[in-house]
Amino acid sequence: MLVSALRRSSTGLSVTVVQACGTVTPGQLHRHNSSFRVHPSVSEALAERRPVVALESTIITHGMPYPENIRMANEVEEIVRINGSVPATVGVIKGKVHIGLCEEELEFLATSTDCVKVSRRDLPYVLSQGLSGGSTVSGTLIAAHHAGIPVFVTGGIGGVHRDGEKTMDISADLTELGRTPVAVISAGIKSILDIGRTLEYLETEGVCVSSFGDSSDFPAFFTPRSGFQAPCRVRNEEEAAQLIASSLDLRLGSGVLIAVPVPPEHAASGQRIEEALQQAMEEARTQGIVGKAVTPFLLRRVNELTGGKSLSSNIALIKNNAMVGSRIAVALSKLRNPKVGTRKECCRIESKEDPKPDSRPVVIGGINVDFIAKAAKDKMVFGGQTNPGQVHQSVGGVGRNLADCMSRLGTRPFFISAVGQDELSHSVLQYCSHMDMQGVARLKGHNTATYCAVITGSGELSLGLGDLAIHNQITDKHVSQFADILHRAPLLCIDGNVPVSTIQYVCEIAQQNSVPVCYEPTDVDKASKPFTSHSWTALRYISPNLRELKSINRTLGYPVDIEVPGELDDMIEAAIGLSLPLLESLRCVIVTLGADGVLLCGHNCEGTLSLRLTDKISGGDLCAVHYPAAPISPEEIINVSGAGDSLMAALLSGVLADLDTDTCVRMGLLAACLSLRSPGPVSQLLSTTSVSVQHVAEEKWPAPRVWDISPSNGKSICRTSP
């Protein structure tokens, strides 16, 4: 039985259709409109009430040149997926509004030279003429509402133009927000606009405007502060979801604007951009540029005048918005559909066709709340004085960093760890919502681990302090609850934070089931934990630095030099010699050399060092390969604490994908470089697009150096020139 109820609202006549199975939203009615094409992945997610995020396409068609536009579009979609939602990029192709685009359709919009900008005003003409174009904010709002998508992510919205009181040049985005009940996640209002008048206009339209995060400052696109206060503030994704849900429940018919500040590390100088903006606006007036051509001209010219700083900030804020918006969509979905799990959870419970639902890598290790303090200067003064600098809080821990990075790169690891039942644990679990945290115990009477790193102005770790006692609760008893998952895993990763008894248990499981193990030492004191017994022979990979490698050799009873050499060639020779005893059982020793890159010591397979799990190794020929680090200036380095973990996680992701050694290592170096530029230990920009085979192939890499090693006397001969 179908019952239709009509109701009046400020935007006209709307319809609610009630069926025996429940309520159908107004958007669901419009999905069958012949002018709209909903991608199957989007349609399926909406039918299952899973979170979906709408994305605009004018930034693809008019915002950036090719191939930067298609790369950015793919990366943004991947960020949405990683954070738990389904991306639905909206575009117009040959007279049809597409909600969700396949790869070919994205490529078409990115490369086409005759795409138009499609706003509400343009839709009838563009569709009637069979044209193609990129959807603006207002156009995307209409499409999202038609499909029943409540969350839309963009860079920044339009607004009242400067001198708008004379020209009446006011973006259709504002009126669309006033009559379309969709939440827009943006970096505020573009700085080329009159921000004060825009906020006043939004108030007139009845749009609820809120800042996101710790500050009530309303962001100005490139910069986190505009000089204006937002009327409301939500501190996190859950509060944002509550705000959106309240707006939808009230049936106001208007949208919500949530303004997310650009990440501090990517915020370009506001003064520099403002000066460039004034110059660009004067040039636009002189050249007679008006109407829709003004904004793209100004953005392009500002980017030229700032030497690309505004473009890099633009890309960073869009990606950040995608991450925040996806998490808001997940929180909103849970709030409105508490009985509906994510697709991953549903598949794990209901799928009967997959014989190995948990055949995926397992990471066992520590999880901390990190406080990263970076000094403004390279040399710090000790003795009680306050050194100027910046302090950033994030979630870290070696095991968590590995699992985070691997999750962002698509390998879906099962993570086993422990946190306390305290205030910090709530933040941890929220921050890690894109990871599978079912193996993380929440323990009463214990503190969630905390770690404080003090970093010099040049990016070097000066001092670390940690309250890590809870890591001792990652016991073999806790891990044994997941023995079935361990048996099926293609790879087990374990860090040095866990107790020796847990390491021994995991190694026994691995030997019994022929599962390879990677051991990630966390510091010199913990590096030797597997080597206090015969457990270490179960290891397949290990990733120490030189000091940790020396500690391991001492534990095994081998003599070592006291000092670590300073020259690169001397470090390589020392690392090769220290790795030889381990290669009797290990496939590869991956020695991290900091700014000097990484050295792989392992078994020669058909003339090259092989990391592949499927390749058979013999006890004969050995070789070593040195890969220089990806170039990065000291000024770009924000945090060194997670670079090594990101390197190993990306490398192992390549190994699990059965890629060649060069590609695996260079994926690791790319991931490390991204994390060095991030305030957190693992960059939120990591994705299958930003760290991909294609990206690796496009980079210009210096050739690695290769050494042949004689197992009998440990001598090495370099067969490639520097």
Summarize the structure.
Helices cover 37% and strands 21% of the residues.
Care to describe what's here?
The chain is of the alpha/beta class and 722 residues long. It has 2 domains: 31-336, 3-Layer(aba) Sandwich (Indigoidine synthase fold), CATH 3.40.1790.10; 355-718, UDP-N-acetylmuramoyl-L-alanine:D-glutamate ligase (3-Layer(aba) Sandwich), CATH 3.40.1190.20. The chain is built from 25 helices and 30 strands. The strands form 4 sheets. Strands 15, 18, 19, 22, 23, 24, 25, 26, 27, 28, 29 and 30 form a 12-stranded mixed β-sheet that branches. Strands 4, 5, 6, 7, 8, 9, 10, 11, 12, 13 and 14 form an 11-stranded mixed β-sheet that branches. A hairpin with a 2-residue loop joins strand 2 (12-19) and strand 3. Helix 11 (237-250) crosses helix 14 (309-336) and helix 12 crosses helix 13. The longest helix is centred in the middle third of the chain and has 28 residues, at 309-336. It is elongated. It starts with a strand and ends with a strand. 49% of the residues are buried. Residues 1-32 and 341-357 have low confidence and may be disordered.
Keywords for this structure?
alpha/beta; Indigoidine synthase fold; UDP-N-acetylmuramoyl-L-alanine:D-glutamate ligase; 2 domains; twelve-stranded mixed β-sheet; eleven-stranded mixed β-sheet; 37% helix; disordered N terminus
Count of helix runs: 25
Quaternary structure annotation: single chain
Structural class by helix and strand composition: alpha/beta
Rounded Rg: 27 Å
Ends: how far apart? 78 Å
Main sheet: strands, sense, barrel = 12 strands, mixed
Binned strand content: 15-25%
Overall CATH class of the largest domain: Alpha Beta
Tally of discrete structural domains: 2
CATH topology heading of the largest domain: UDP-N-acetylmuramoyl-L-alanine:D-glutamate ligase
User: What level of helicity do the residues show?
Assistant: 25-40%
Q: Which second-level CATH architecture of the largest domain applies?
A: 3-Layer(aba) Sandwich
Q: Per the principal axes of the C-alpha atoms, what is the gross shape?
A: elongated
User: Which homologous superfamily in CATH is the superfamily of the largest domain?
Assistant: Ribokinase
The average pLDDT is 84
- Return residue spans where pLDDT drops below 50 for at least 5 consecutive residues: 1-32, 341-357
Q: Tell me how many strands there are.
A: 30
